Structure formats: structure tokens, C-alpha cells
TrEMBL record:
InterPro entries: Biotin_lipoyl (IPR000089), Single_hybrid_motif (IPR011053). CDD domains: lipoyl_domain (cd06849). It comes from Pelosinus propionicus DSM 13327. Residues 37-98 form the Lipoyl-binding domain. This is Biotin-requiring enzyme. SUPFAM superfamilies: Single hybrid motif (SSF51230). Pfam families: Biotin_lipoyl (PF00364).
Length: 102
């Protein structure tokens, strides 16, 4: 009887772990601007682009040139870009969404 309970607990634990991995494997992560400014076309990602953690997603224009305003926080595929060149963004604005696990 104790042996069956142990197996049942292990099976349930395994199912929960696999299920949680599948849920997180295909989730979408919002990417936010870390600097405020006007978006430039230089360095702007497009939907479908594959990115790795740390890749530049968008740049803003400054008096010294274009600088990164947002970097990917995860590996994945760009699902959606919410800004376009000439648009002003504030710190914390969502600029893109990345589908992780792709």
C-alpha cells in the first residue's frame, strides 16, 4: 500500500514539473524601455527576428547618436514590436514582446 502511494506521488510530481516546463517554455515576455527618448530606425527589431538575451531591441536618438533603449531579457523570437521610428517612449514603456522557448 505504501509503495503504491509513493509511486502515485512521484507520478503526480513528474506531471506537475513537466506541465510547468511546458507552460513557461512558450510564454511571452514584455520588453520595456530602460531609457526615455525618440525611437530610431537604426537597430529596431522586427517581428519574427530571433534574439538572445542582451541583444538590442530598440534604440533612441541622443545628441551623441543612437543608444540602446531596450535589450532582450530572454532568448526567443520577437512576437510583436509596439513602437516605430519617431515615437517617443518613457522609461518602463513596453516596446516589444518576445516569445521565449522558440
Amino acid at each position: 500500500m505504501l509503495h503504491r502511494k509513493s509511486i502515485a506521488v512521484l507520478v503526480i510530481g513528474f506531471v506537475l514539473i513537466v506541465g510547468s516546463l511546458l507552460v513557461t517554455a512558450n510564454s511571452v515576455v514584455e520588453q520595456k524601455a530602460s531609457l526615455a527618448g525618440t525611437i530610431t530606425s537604426n537597430g529596431l527589431v522586427k517581428p519574427g527576428d530571433t534574439v538572445r538575451e542582451g541583444d538590442v531591441l530598440v534604440k533612441i536618438d541622443t545628441i551623441t547618436g543612437a543608444i540602446p533603449a531596450s535589450r532582450a531579457t530572454a532568448n526567443g523570437v520577437v512576437k510583436e514590436v509596439l513602437v516605430s521610428p519617431g515615437v517617443s517612449v518613457a522609461v518602463g514603456d513596453v516596446v516589444a514582446r518576445i516569445e521565449i522557448g522558440k
